[in-house]
Design brief:
Elements: E1 11-15, E2 23-29, H1 37-52, E3 56-62, H2 63-67, E4 78-80
Parallel strand pairs: 1-4, 2-3
Antiparallel strand pairs: 1-2
Length: 81
């Protein structure tokens, strides 16, 4: 939420196995931020890796797609793959 364009807090942690070595995030974005996704992804990755000491992978999806995973205006924070 400290990153401009991702400050709306639409994200999910992707649980890809019982024991995970890296952090995988799915982050919702709005159309007006699309031109800045590459910069936002780099900033989010750097901040998470610096804060947690864990390799981080960021994938962006449109906000409405992310919101479709749960009830209106609420995103399940963990998504199992």
């Amino acid at each position: 939420e400290d990153i401009k364009g991702a400050d709306h807090g639409l994200f999910q942690i992707i649980k890809y196995s019982e024991e995970m070595e890296d952090l995988r995030l799915r982050i919702g974005y709005y159309p007006e931020t699309e031109p800045r996704l590459k910069d936002m992804g780099g900033a989010i990755t750097s901040k998470m890796e610096e804060s947690l000491g864990v390799k981080t992978e960021v994938n962006f999806v449109k906000a409405e797609e992310l919101l479709a995973f749960g009830p209106p205006h609420k995103v399940p924070r963990i998504h199992k793959e």
